[in-house]
Amino acid sequence: MLIARRTLIAVLAVGAVAGCTSDDEADRPPVVQLGPPGETGTPLTDDELTGLDQPQYTDADVAFVQGMIQHHAQALVMTDLVVERAGSDDLPLMAERMDVSQRDEIALLEEWLETRGEDVPDASGEHHEHGEDGQVMPGMLTDDDLARLAAATGRDFDELFLLYMIRHHEGALVMVGELLTAGEGGQESALFQLAQHIDSDQGIEIARMKSLLAEIAASPGS
User: Fold this and answer.
1) Are 165 and 209 in contact (CB under 8 A)?
2) Alpha carbon distances (Å) from 34 to 4, 13, 195
3) 166 φ, ψ to 5°?
4) At what angle do helices 154-181 and 90-115 cross, to 10 degrees?
5) How would residue 122 be classed by pLDDT, with cut points 50, 70 and 90?
6) What are the distances in angstroms from CA 99 to CA 82, 106, 148?
7) Residues facing residue 130 across a β-bridge
8) Which segments cross the bilayer (predicted)?
9) pLDDT band for position 220 (50/70/90)?
């Protein structure tokens, strides 16, 4: 799962605020600059906060967002196959929820790029394996994989879909992890929150898919 983000500034909530302050000031937690290990942090004043340089987005952030849009787009190609091919009553509902979450995240990723004047990639799902940089993205299905999935029906489709989508989602987690550990991106606040959201969402869906796959494997006819 998501690796903890190392940062200089931490927001700490406190139960009470000393002195006479307005309601707004009393409700606002102090921002503390973390000290060395074993030492206490130092609360920052409003003037000090104003002077802090906020992390800016990087080329690595742009490449991550553009790649994740195409990664999510392929998931939509896969969920579109479910209704006409699924054998399990549970899979269509799961796929529908997955479809909604992927579309919502694509919209957020596109907005992030548009706000910063960066190119928004094609989200049709027609470009399968490679990101904007030409590299194969983790977890992406090949054309042969998609053809095999499209040719399957019933129980065979259910098992293959879940295996492929688990792999696909795990690939998205790899992309998030690489962004946050390579040291070239993931520090801009909005981008970090997007990466966190994707990591959490994909992790939850992986757990659900593994549970359904186990149920199907244990059902009669296995």
Assistant:
1) yes
2) 15, 14, 23
3) -60, -45
4) 30
5) confident
6) 11, 11, 20
7) 136
8) none
9) confident
Which tens digit of pLDDT belongs to each residue from 37-96? 566 777 767 666 565 567 899 999 999 999 999 999 999 999 999 999 999 999 999 999
Report the distance separating Cα 53 and Cα 10, nearest Å: 15
Q: CATH homologous superfamily of domain 59-218?
A: Ferritin, core subunit, four-helix bundle (1.20.1260.10)
Query: Model confidence over 20-43: pLDDT tens digits?
Result: 444 544 455 665 655 555 667 777
Helical spans, DSSP H, in 18-117: 23-27, 46-50, 59-79, 82-85, 90-115
Tokens 């520090």 belong to which residue? 187
Per the DSSP assignment, residues forming a β-bridge with 193 are: none
Torsion of CA 70, 74, 75, 79, to 10 degrees: 140
Share of the chain above pLDDT 90, in %: 64
**Dihedral sign (CA 20, 25, 29, 35):** negative
Q: What crossing angle do the helices spanning 189-218 and 90-115 adopt, rounded to 10°?
A: 170
Domain positions in the chain: 9-50, 59-218
Q: Which residues pair with 136 in a beta bridge?
A: 130
